[in-house]
């Protein structure tokens, strides 16, 4: 081993750039004709050359990101290292300029497919006949393929007319944009139908995209394989040649080959099975009937050993899982028919397929996928084990199931014309899921959680300059994948909820029904939706005849961000001045306007907080003045049904603090949320929200769930950003003081079988256990110790808190025990809790060991990679460890996990909330610049992460001293604020 080099005397980059006293060397010319260099000068020049080489090396050393402890240069800094040529091309920076869209000169009407997977060499073989209709005269047929080899000799194009001869092919080849082009020697005639035949070979990949293979061990330890599909958004082209865009709807007739000991599933019910011998192996060919017209991304098939649950349903629904997990599928099997029945009645349109298989796939990239007739789920999103699953797991199963069933109408029956309107299906499914769950589990009052989940999630990203419009142009897979984010899902849901409230439930519902009936089995865009809603609104007199939903909603869909509405009351003259501008976390001033519906009430009205109809409108104006009857306090945007936040004059804020407990829980949550965000953006003094939270925490003896949840979520920002500062101790005293009675009331006794009670318990205990010397920590460690010694189980709803706390406060012994338990347990929900807990340790070397398992431990599945990384990144000790790991292993991670589910993008976003220094910001920016050529689908994630860190840095400059002084000043009277 070479000895360690001492760099203490080497000049730094700053020294080099500011070297005002550089030595200059001259060559002495003798009086003779030649050039004469003295021997000492030769030596000096040699030394100079050596120094120059050293300086060049140092410049490279200081300009390239440096890593401590002799670590090798990260693979991310070595262009395309470890990535195949094909992958490198697919991930290159030029991809954003590639247009993958197909010509509209022809369209498919029917696919006849035969596909045979080979589990031994992870390949597939297939044959396909596509029926095409010529929309205009053309001699080109262009369709999508990705990692598929087409047998050129098998390609035949001919008319569907009887006894037609093949059309001569001039040329055929793969072209840019994941396309295949066939150039014919004669024109296809407009209005006529043709038949395209071909054979092809593909792969069963490991990235959970297209047609992919996964494996697991059954309860007897036998290795099992599953081949399943995930085609959304643009991966059907990985499984078979196709016109892989949502507007190219067609019918599909599918045949699947399988080993005789396995079964298959597809969109339609199985009709016949035929035995065939191929290459000395007997295969079963399962044949499925023709599907309704649908987009390629909704096609699905599975080859597996999964089994159906035997339970009485409505005869349409069947739930499938591993045989040993079938008892855990019972909850989903019970509520799925109820949710389906609810949506059939709500829309007045029956589910159009003869069956609905709901399948727990052993490894799955998304939470679930709404394939028509064959809905696929990640196991943890579908299976509920009463002995180990939690209240939160049950909520996840219900909401995800409701989301996917809602898609059967919004997405499947009526499909967006293009991915620029992704929100038209994902936003609606994210909103309507609350309807389905509320119908099956009314005691949960889940609609009350909308602000804490969807609205807050959307605003967190939409408050950044790097946010994007909800509808925006995309032209290739990389851009499309990045659209699957909180803007499409949660902001989409939030603005749909806003439409419901300013139109009214009946107008909204009737407009949706008319939209679905008009466009069923076809495609639509947002303007089609707005037209249907406008017709209903005009008929009901909800909107003026010169007003349309398009006028209103274009301002919400075609530009990023959301309004900050500021209200200033003129109490003497009974007037309210209302202005709007775009809200930014960095408090940037920008004149931007929306059509804003403003519900309103005051303390002297006969208050009906459920009346969310707009009393006023900002019709694109920057300012309005309204005559109002003012008293003690007033409120705008009741229950935050509008997608915006409100700032009030100081007098009203103080009055709202005084009356906080007179307001409904949802209004309390809204006021806490708005005021904390305004203070974070340096628009409002922190005195307002911190007093409001304290007042509520001290007086709320019932511990209302939603406002408590919101308060803790907003305080989490302060906890994270202050964690390494002198003010953190003061912050801990604050939350311990104001929530003292809450922490005392909420114990580990999990005996009340009530959804809301258990949600409160989990939320409160997580915070109570933050203090190392708390009773909560002692209880958690004691329970974990009993688990280790006596295998004395912990109640499921307490495990998350107990596991994390015990691992955090424990040693390697607790960590190893938790990891071994993760390896041994088969229950998906238990595995998730343990993966989260393993990232809680305060021992940095254990965190390094843990994050390294993302690449070298096969027990960490691809679907769980972002969970593992986030558990380390959100740990105060682990943020830098996670960041260093990501930088060092970028290319390997990209090659291992692919770009299908934004896994690396989620990793980047997980880092940002926990970075707040100039150095961390510069390192994050430098890292992004170093991987320009293989940034994959993470570009927008980097933008939002960098901006989040910038806002954190800015917060430290503008707000830190104010907050620290506030805590010091009020230290003795937190409970009396």
Structural class of the secondary structure composition?
A: alpha+beta
Enumerate how many helices there are, as a single number: 31
> What count of structural domains?
6
Can you tell me the CATH architecture of the largest domain?
A: Sandwich
Indicate the mean pLDDT.
90
Rg result = 31 Å
CATH-level-4 superfamily name of the largest domain: tricorn interacting facor f3 domain
Overall 3D geometry?
Answer: globular
Binned, the helix content reads 40-55%
Task: Find the CATH topology of the largest domain.
Answer: Immunoglobulin-like
Strand content: 15-25%
In CATH's first tier, which class of the largest domain applies?
A: Mainly Beta
User: Termini separation (Å)?
Assistant: 64 Å
Which residues sit in consecutive blocks of at least 5 with pLDDT less than 50? Answer: 1-37, 58-94
For the biggest sheet, the summary is:
8 strands, mixed
Count the E strands.
Answer: 30
Topology overview:
Elements: H1 13-17, H2 39-63, H3 85-91, E1 106-118, E2 123-134, E3 138-144, E4 149-150, E5 156-159, E6 169-175, E7 179-188, E8 193-203, E9 210-217, E10 223-230, E11 251-259, E12 263-266, E13 272-278, E14 281-287, E15 301-304, E16 307-308, E17 317-321, H4 330-347, E18 356-361, E19 368-369, E20 374-378, H5 391-406, E21 414-416, H6 423-440, H7 450-462, H8 477-482, H9 486-503, H10 505-519, E22 522-524, H11 526-540, H12 549-557, E23 563-570, E24 575-582, E25 595-598, E26 600-602, E27 616-619, E28 623-627, E29 634-636, E30 645-647, H13 650-658, H14 665-680, H15 687-699, H16 705-722, H17 728-738, H18 740-745, H19 755-768, H20 775-790, H21 796-809, H22 812-824, H23 828-838, H24 844-856, H25 865-873, H26 879-888, H27 890-897, H28 903-911, H29 918-930, H30 939-958, H31 960-969
Parallel strand pairs: 1-11, 17-18, 18-20, 21-22, 23-30
Antiparallel strand pairs: 1-2, 2-8, 3-7, 4-8, 5-8, 6-7, 9-10, 11-14, 12-15, 13-14, 16-17, 19-20, 23-24, 24-28, 25-27, 26-29
